[in-house]
Amino acid sequence: MRLSDTIESFIKAMLQEDQMEVELKRNELAEYFHCAPSQINYVLATRFTPDHGYVISSQRGGGGYIRIVRVRQSSGDHLEYLLRERVGDRLDAQTAQILCQQLAERQVLSPSQAQLMASALSPQALSAPMPEAVKDALRAKIFKCMLLTVMQQRQET
User: Fold this and answer.
1) CA geometry: angle at 114 spanning 112 and 115, to 5°?
2) What share of the chain is helix, strand, coil (3-state, %, to 5)?
3) Which of 121, 96, 122, 100 is nearest to 111 (CA)?
4) Residues 56-108 pLDDT 10s
5) Global model pTM greater than 0.70
6) DSSP letters for 101-131
7) CA-to-CA distance for 155 and 157, rounded, in angstroms?
8) Pairing with 125, which of 30, 35, 63, 77 sits 20 to 30 Å away (CA)?
Protein backbone atom coordinates (compact mmCIF):
# COMPACT_ATOMS: atom_id res chain seq x y z
CA MET A 1 0.00 0.00 0.00
CA ARG A 2 1.33 3.44 -0.92
CA LEU A 3 1.84 6.09 1.72
CA SER A 4 -0.94 8.25 0.24
CA ASP A 5 -3.37 5.34 0.54
CA THR A 6 -2.29 4.71 4.13
CA ILE A 7 -2.79 8.37 5.10
CA GLU A 8 -6.19 8.42 3.41
CA SER A 9 -7.29 5.24 5.22
CA PHE A 10 -6.07 6.63 8.54
CA ILE A 11 -8.07 9.85 8.15
CA LYS A 12 -11.17 7.98 6.95
CA ALA A 13 -10.95 5.69 9.98
CA MET A 14 -11.03 8.81 12.16
CA LEU A 15 -14.18 9.90 10.34
CA GLN A 16 -16.40 7.07 11.44
CA GLU A 17 -20.06 6.86 10.49
CA ASP A 18 -21.30 8.85 13.48
CA GLN A 19 -18.55 11.47 13.33
CA MET A 20 -19.01 14.15 10.68
CA GLU A 21 -15.74 16.03 11.19
CA VAL A 22 -12.23 15.68 12.47
CA GLU A 23 -9.51 18.20 13.33
CA LEU A 24 -5.90 17.34 12.59
CA LYS A 25 -2.55 19.03 12.89
CA ARG A 26 -0.65 18.74 9.63
CA ASN A 27 2.81 18.60 11.26
CA GLU A 28 1.75 15.99 13.80
CA LEU A 29 0.27 13.84 11.05
CA ALA A 30 3.43 14.22 8.95
CA GLU A 31 5.54 13.26 11.96
CA TYR A 32 3.34 10.22 12.66
CA PHE A 33 3.77 8.98 9.07
CA HIS A 34 7.42 10.06 8.81
CA CYS A 35 6.78 12.19 5.75
CA ALA A 36 6.86 15.82 4.68
CA PRO A 37 3.83 18.01 5.43
CA SER A 38 3.48 18.45 1.66
CA GLN A 39 2.57 14.74 1.46
CA ILE A 40 -0.32 15.41 3.83
CA ASN A 41 -1.33 18.39 1.67
CA TYR A 42 -1.29 16.15 -1.41
CA VAL A 43 -3.59 13.58 0.19
CA LEU A 44 -5.99 16.27 1.39
CA ALA A 45 -6.04 18.02 -1.99
CA THR A 46 -6.64 14.85 -3.99
CA ARG A 47 -8.62 12.51 -1.73
CA PHE A 48 -10.76 14.82 0.42
CA THR A 49 -12.36 17.09 -2.15
CA PRO A 50 -16.02 18.10 -2.51
CA ASP A 51 -16.30 15.47 -5.27
CA HIS A 52 -15.33 12.90 -2.67
CA GLY A 53 -17.88 14.33 -0.22
CA TYR A 54 -15.58 16.39 2.01
CA VAL A 55 -14.97 20.04 2.80
CA ILE A 56 -11.63 21.13 4.24
CA SER A 57 -10.91 24.28 6.22
CA SER A 58 -7.66 25.20 7.91
CA GLN A 59 -6.17 27.63 10.37
CA ARG A 60 -2.50 28.42 9.98
CA GLY A 61 -0.09 29.34 12.73
CA GLY A 62 1.13 27.82 15.99
CA GLY A 63 -2.25 26.48 17.07
CA GLY A 64 -3.28 25.77 13.50
CA TYR A 65 -5.39 22.85 12.42
CA ILE A 66 -7.03 21.21 9.45
CA ARG A 67 -10.72 20.47 9.78
CA ILE A 68 -12.19 17.83 7.49
CA VAL A 69 -15.98 17.73 7.34
CA ARG A 70 -17.87 14.93 5.65
CA VAL A 71 -20.82 16.31 3.73
CA ARG A 72 -23.91 14.18 4.12
CA GLN A 73 -26.25 13.97 1.18
CA SER A 74 -28.93 11.46 0.53
CA SER A 75 -27.98 9.13 -2.28
CA GLY A 76 -30.70 10.64 -4.48
CA ASP A 77 -29.36 14.15 -3.88
CA HIS A 78 -25.86 12.98 -4.67
CA LEU A 79 -26.95 11.33 -7.91
CA GLU A 80 -28.76 14.50 -8.95
CA TYR A 81 -25.68 16.58 -8.10
CA LEU A 82 -23.50 14.33 -10.25
CA LEU A 83 -25.99 14.35 -13.09
CA ARG A 84 -26.84 18.05 -13.13
CA GLU A 85 -23.72 19.79 -11.84
CA ARG A 86 -20.60 17.65 -11.57
CA VAL A 87 -20.54 15.72 -14.84
CA GLY A 88 -20.57 18.17 -17.69
CA ASP A 89 -20.03 17.56 -21.37
CA ARG A 90 -16.72 15.80 -20.75
CA LEU A 91 -15.47 13.30 -18.21
CA ASP A 92 -11.90 12.03 -18.11
CA ALA A 93 -11.14 8.43 -17.20
CA GLN A 94 -9.51 9.18 -13.85
CA THR A 95 -12.45 11.29 -12.64
CA ALA A 96 -14.88 8.60 -13.80
CA GLN A 97 -13.00 6.01 -11.73
CA ILE A 98 -13.10 8.29 -8.66
CA LEU A 99 -16.83 8.96 -9.03
CA CYS A 100 -17.61 5.24 -9.38
CA GLN A 101 -15.55 4.49 -6.29
CA GLN A 102 -17.35 7.25 -4.41
CA LEU A 103 -20.74 5.81 -5.36
CA ALA A 104 -19.67 2.48 -3.88
CA GLU A 105 -18.30 4.11 -0.72
CA ARG A 106 -21.60 5.94 -0.23
CA GLN A 107 -23.39 2.62 -0.80
CA VAL A 108 -25.35 4.08 -3.70
CA LEU A 109 -23.99 1.17 -5.76
CA SER A 110 -22.70 -2.20 -4.73
CA PRO A 111 -18.95 -2.64 -5.17
CA SER A 112 -19.55 -4.93 -8.16
CA GLN A 113 -21.89 -2.41 -9.82
CA ALA A 114 -19.35 0.36 -9.33
CA GLN A 115 -16.59 -1.82 -10.73
CA LEU A 116 -18.74 -2.64 -13.76
CA MET A 117 -19.45 1.06 -14.37
CA ALA A 118 -15.78 1.95 -13.96
CA SER A 119 -14.84 -0.78 -16.41
CA ALA A 120 -17.30 0.53 -19.01
CA LEU A 121 -15.81 4.03 -18.63
CA SER A 122 -12.17 2.91 -18.63
CA PRO A 123 -9.55 3.85 -21.21
CA GLN A 124 -9.53 0.20 -22.33
CA ALA A 125 -13.26 0.28 -23.09
CA LEU A 126 -12.88 3.47 -25.09
CA SER A 127 -9.68 2.53 -26.88
CA ALA A 128 -10.95 3.23 -30.38
CA PRO A 129 -8.76 5.54 -32.47
CA MET A 130 -10.39 8.89 -31.75
CA PRO A 131 -9.31 12.14 -30.10
CA GLU A 132 -9.28 12.22 -26.28
CA ALA A 133 -11.85 15.03 -26.31
CA VAL A 134 -14.30 12.77 -28.15
CA LYS A 135 -13.63 9.91 -25.71
CA ASP A 136 -14.24 12.24 -22.76
CA ALA A 137 -17.52 13.47 -24.28
CA LEU A 138 -18.63 9.90 -24.92
CA ARG A 139 -17.62 8.87 -21.39
CA ALA A 140 -19.73 11.71 -19.93
CA LYS A 141 -22.79 10.65 -21.93
CA ILE A 142 -22.37 6.99 -20.92
CA PHE A 143 -21.93 7.92 -17.25
CA LYS A 144 -25.01 10.15 -17.29
CA CYS A 145 -27.08 7.36 -18.85
CA MET A 146 -25.90 4.98 -16.14
CA LEU A 147 -26.76 7.51 -13.43
CA LEU A 148 -30.24 7.98 -14.87
CA THR A 149 -30.76 4.20 -14.84
CA VAL A 150 -29.61 4.00 -11.21
CA MET A 151 -31.96 6.84 -10.27
CA GLN A 152 -34.85 5.11 -12.05
CA GLN A 153 -34.16 1.81 -10.28
CA ARG A 154 -34.01 3.54 -6.89
CA GLN A 155 -37.38 5.20 -7.50
CA GLU A 156 -38.99 1.89 -8.46
CA THR A 157 -38.01 0.23 -5.20
Assistant:
1) 65
2) 60, 10, 30
3) 100
4) 877 776 666 788 877 655 555 666 666 666 777 888 898 889 888 888 887 78
5) no
6) HHHHHTTSS-HHHHHHHHHHTSTTTT-SSS-
7) 6
8) 77
